[in-house]
Amino acid sequence: MVTVELENDNNQKMPRSNNNNCVSNKQSSQNIELKNDDQIPGYLSIYKVFQLIGIILILSVFLWLQIYRTGFGFSEIIQICNWHPLLMTITFVYLFANSILHFRNFRKTTKQKLKMQHATIHSCIIIFGVLGLWTGLNSNLIANPPIPKFYSLHSWLGIITVIMFLFQYTSGFISFLYPEIAMKYKKVVMPYHIIFGILTFALSIVTSVLGFSEKIMFALNQQHEYMPTEGLFLNCVGIVFIVYGALVVYILIKPEYKRSYKPDDGVTHNGA
Fold it and tell me: What is the pTM of this model?
């Protein structure tokens, strides 16, 4: 009886040892995965370039408005209007880009926290974006004589961009932050959320470049025999906008830069 009991004890202990080894191996593989996830070749360098170009964009728009367009204020029409391109550049270009790359930049953070931070950044974009839209529309209304609204392709695409962004924000909030949504629905929505997010960002870049093109035409003031310094400066800024947008899309679609799967990611990992 003693021998049988000892054998039973040994048999009961053996699976525990195997389980411990499995847990240890799983933890080791997760640690290796996290380590490799933080050492993606070239990502840190391209991320620094991305941030540098974004800051250059904001500074370029600020300097253009400060040097060529009399600066900022709320008393004169042109100074009110100047808030529009600056705020829209900060929100629908720079913050938007950082928001959609947020899951790649903070790889050790849990997916739930990243989703909350992603939604928070989008909320800030809406708040300051509304202020940017208000300054653009209000400057047209108070002009003497009033400037027609929504007559240009820039304004049309701007409206479409805002509508798409609000749709993305609402659908994403309901689909991925509302706990009652079924997992199978999240799986279906996630690829479309990513695709339309990229399209919305690309459209914001196109809208910005068209806005600068309008300003160049105003700067020419029917003097087409030469290009003023302001026009040359805005052309360069427009090119930087395109390079910035292309860089963001490149980071998003490059498979090696995607955030690797973590045990707490759930179904929302798909390509994020």
Answer: 0.79
